[in-house]
Design goal:
- The structure holds 2 protein chains of 2 kinds.
- Chain A has helices at 8-55, 71-78, 152-200, 220-268, 272-301, 316-333, 353-370, 425-435; strands spanning 58-61, 64-67, 85-90, 96-99, 115-121, 124-137, 140-151, 312-315, 337-342, 348-351, 376-383, 387-394, 439-443, 451-458.
- By secondary structure, chain A is an alpha+beta fold.
- Chain A has 3 domains: 11-159, Beta-Lactamase, CATH 3.30.450; 221-301, Signal transduction histidine kinase, dimerisation/phosphotransfer (DHp) domain (Helix Hairpins, Orthogonal Bundle); 312-458, Heat Shock Protein 90, CATH 3.30.565.
- In chain A, the strands form 4 sheets. A 5-stranded antiparallel sheet of chain A has the order 4-3-7-6-5. In chain A, strands 9-11-12-14-13 form a 5-stranded mixed sheet. In chain A, strands 1-2 form a two-stranded antiparallel ribbon.
- The model of chain A has no long low-confidence stretch (mean pLDDT 85).
- Chain B contains 8 helices and 12 strands.
- Chain B has helices at 10-22, 33-42, 59-68, 84-92, 105-119, 152-163, 171-179, 187-201; strands at 2-6, 26-30, 47-51, 75-79, 97-100, 126-129, 132-135, 140-143, 146-147, 168-170, 208-211, 215-218.
- The chains are: A alpha+beta, B alpha/beta.
- Chain A binds chain B through residues 249-250, 252-261, 263-264, 267, 285, 289, 296, 306-307, 321, 324-326, 328-329, 332, 337-342, 353-354, 378-379, and chain B through 9-16, 18-19, 22, 51, 53, 78, 80-84, 100-106, 166-168, 170, 209, 211-215, 217, 219.
């Protein structure tokens, strides 16, 4: 099961928008309450107005209370803006005078104060006002009660509309705020993104400090911490490389001792078995020497290695000539025709002479080891306008196509060749090539057999 | 001929001592820089083989003090390092030659011979290679004891090849060597000299191999 990684943007957005929505809900509820209160107040006032209109028609004639509402007033009550109103006028003894007898009664019909209340009228909720009208004339004394009621639904509808009217702009505000936050987070994260781009664009050799100049103050401690880590890493690497380098150098002296002693012993040995043993010992010291040189080359080629910044302009053709010459005695011993094919043109390359020699040493070591007796190995330096191509070609068994990429991996060895080695040779070649902005490619020889390794260097200006 | 070996690795020192004694040199050996300095201050040698990584007083310092005292004894430096600055530093301080460890014993012996020859002004200067000998002072060569009829340039080419026998000699280097006595010597001229030399050396079983694109090599005597 995979979980989507938490993004900073989503987290910030969640933590900003969720409280906003809670606040929005709360404010909606408050809005509704406030709207309700004002609507009620305004509508109650209108009801009271209607009650007053009715009360002006109340008269006492012949000792009886009359309330003859003119047609205008009745019409007005029916067509009120806030909906039709029902009315009821009752006498001091609660006797029916005029209106709708079904109107609900206030809790205390005998109260002397104007009273607003809610009730039911023909199965519908209504709001009502009860206005007592004190009368003391024509033999009638007491309160005439004028009641006016209207449908409660109207008020709720108005309050609801007020609430919606307030909710929508607030909702729009929240959406706009979320969008603004989204954009602002993106803007705020931009320095982190550019830091990420800078780091991922780096080669694994580059352990130099990251630039903190463009970064905002909050990001600087992060960059600082990373730079500290890079610094420690490169120190650790450098000391590791020094250790390898020192160890390899130190190993050369005892090997020189073994080699010298073996050669001396070979001169004196008369018994053929002893000679054979000594020759194997001699071969082993050669092998050990090669491995030490390879180790040194690796230690040097890697970031932080000894002399990591040794770079000089050199003629690759001269370097190839001198290095190849050193391998001629071994080629003769193995009856291999080793030669150089180069023009007289200069082949200027910017590089570390030790590493470039070691690269060619490894290519020649491979070519001479894997090519059969009587074979042919040719080193070429071909300069053109932009590139200097160094290649080593042999007419040995070649490398199967499927394995051609893998042979550049460390410790990878083509099986069944019967040649001793540790599988570092081509890895070193690739490492050194890359350090010089070049790339090593392994393919087959000109006539489809054998091995051809080609390294194209940028031409030095 | 007295040789001083200053080398702290006992196995290597022992090998060097035995090898040089076989060649009838008188060999002394020290394993530490202070001792080397002390011995060199008191005695005369014809050659010093000096390891740069000596304990207590390193090879550079021993060499510096030696030259400071005005001694001109040839010094062959041995080094376990290959950084170019070590070599340059060693040669600047007055080393005559250097070898990086591990080296081939015949190579060391050849360098020792060359340095001792150089150290003796007017001494013997005969190179030999199988049946072939070359007297660099008398400017003549013999094959199987018989004097060879060689021109000065042929002799020059042969001398360079013999000095580096078993190793490739570049055509350019050959041309450079001959430049001293002649005006410009082209690559074609070198080919002609080598061709003539081959014809004259063939009866003695001495072979000059052509190494494709690299130069020539005087093949080791069988």
């Amino acid at each position: 099961m995979t979980r989507r990684p938490r993004t900073l943007r989503r987290q910030l957005l969640t933590w900003l928008v969720a409280p906003l929505i809670v606040l929005w809900t709360l404010s909606t509820w408050i809005d509704f309450e406030i709207a309700n209160r004002f609507v009620r107040f305004a509508y109650d006032r209108a009801l009271l107005e209607s009650a007053l209109d009715i009360s002006r028609q109340v008269k006492v004639v012949d000792g009886r209370v009359h309330a003859d509402l003119p047609e205008v007033v009745v019409q007005m009550l029916r067509t009120r803006q806030s909906g039709a109103a029902y009315y009821l006028v009752t006498g001091p003894d609660n006797e029916y005078i005029t209106g709708d007898p079904d109107l609900p009664s206030p809790p205390d019909p005998r109260s002397d104060a104007v009273y607003f209340y809610d009730g039911q009228h023909r199965g519908k909720p209504v709001s009502a006002v009860a206005m007592p009208l004190p009368i003391d004339s024509g033999g009638v004394a007491g309160n005439v009660l004028v009641r006016v009621a209207e449908d409660y639904g109207t008020r709720t509808e108005v309050a609801r509309q007020i609430m919606i009217g307030m909710m929508i702009p607030q909702g729009v505000l929240i959406v706009l705020a979320a969008l603004a936050v989204w954009y602002a987070i993106g803007r705020g994260l931009a320095p982190l993104n550019s830091l990420q781009r800078e780091i991922s664009a780096r080669s694994h050799r580059d352990l130099s400090a990251l630039s903190a100049e463009q970064a905002p103050r909050e990001v600087r401690p992060l960059i600082q911490a990373m730079n500290d880590l890079l610094g420690r890493l490169s120190k650790a690497l450098a000391s590791q490389q020094r250790l390898i380098g020192n160890a390899a150098h130190q190993l050369r002296t005892p090997i020189a001792g073994i080699k010298t002693q073996t050669e001396l012993a070979l001169r004196q040995a008369r018994v053929s078995e002893t000679r054979e043993t000594l020759q194997r010992l001699q071969a082993a010291t050669e092998q050990a020497t090669r491995m030490i040189n390879q180790l040194l080359a690796l230690a040097r080629a890697e970031p932080g290695g000894e002399g990591a910044h040794t770079r000089e302009r050199l003629d690759l053709a001269v370097l190839a000539r001198d290095t190849t010459s050193e391998w001629v005695p071994r080629a003769i011993a193995r009856d291999i025709d080793l030669g150089l094919d180069s023009t007289d043109a200069a082949a200027p390359v910017e590089g570390d002479p030790f590493l470039l020699r070691e690269m060619l040493n490894n290519l020649l070591d491979n070519a001479l080891s894997y090519t059969q007796r009587g074979g042919r190995v040719t080193v070429r330096v071909t300069p053109d306008a932009n590139r200097i191509v160094l290649s080593v070609e042999d007419n040995g068994p070649g490398v199967p196509e499927a394995e051609r990429d893998r042979v550049f991996e460390r410790f990878y060895r083509v099986l069944g060749t019967g040649v001793e080695g540790c599988g570092l040779g081509l890895a070193i070649v690739q490492e050194i090539a890359q350090r010089h902005g070049a790339d090593a490619v392994l393919t087959h020889g000109a006539d489809g057999t054998g091995t051809l390794v080609r390294v194209g260097f940028p031409r030095a200006a | 001929m007295r040789i001083l070996i200053a080398e702290d690795d006992p196995m290597l020192a022992d090998g060097l001592v035995r090898s040089l004694k076989e060649s009838d040199y008188a060999v002394d050996c020290v394993s530490e820089g202070g001792a080397a300095d002390h011995v060199l201050a008191g005695q005369n040698y014809d050659l010093v083989i000096l390891d740069l990584g000596l304990p207590r007083l390193d090879g550079f310092e021993v060499l510096r003090r030696l030259r400071h005292r005005g001694s001109r004894v040839p010094v062959l430096v041995l080094t376990a390092r290959d950084a170019l600055d070590d070599r340059v530093k060693g040669l600047d301080l007055g080393a005559d030659d250097y070898l990086t460890k591990p080296f081939d014993l015949p190579e060391l012996e050849a360098r020792v011979r060359a340095l001792i020859r150089r150290g003796q002004s007017g001494g013997t200067s005969v190179l030999s290679h199988g049946a072939l000998t070359l007297d660099t002072a008398g400017r003549c060569a013999t094959l199987d004891g018989e004097l060879l009829d060689l021109s000065a340039r042929e002799l020059g080419v042969l001398e360079v090849l013999m000095l580096r026998s078993g190793r490739v000699v570049n055509k350019d280097r050959l041309a450079e060597q001959l430049y001293g006595w002649d005006e410009e010597v082209g690559a074609n001229a070198i080919e002609v000299y080598v061709h003539r030399l081959r014809r004259k050396l063939e009866p003695g079983g001495v072979t000059i191999r052509t190494i494709r694109g690299l130069g020539y090599l005087l093949e080791k005597s069988p």
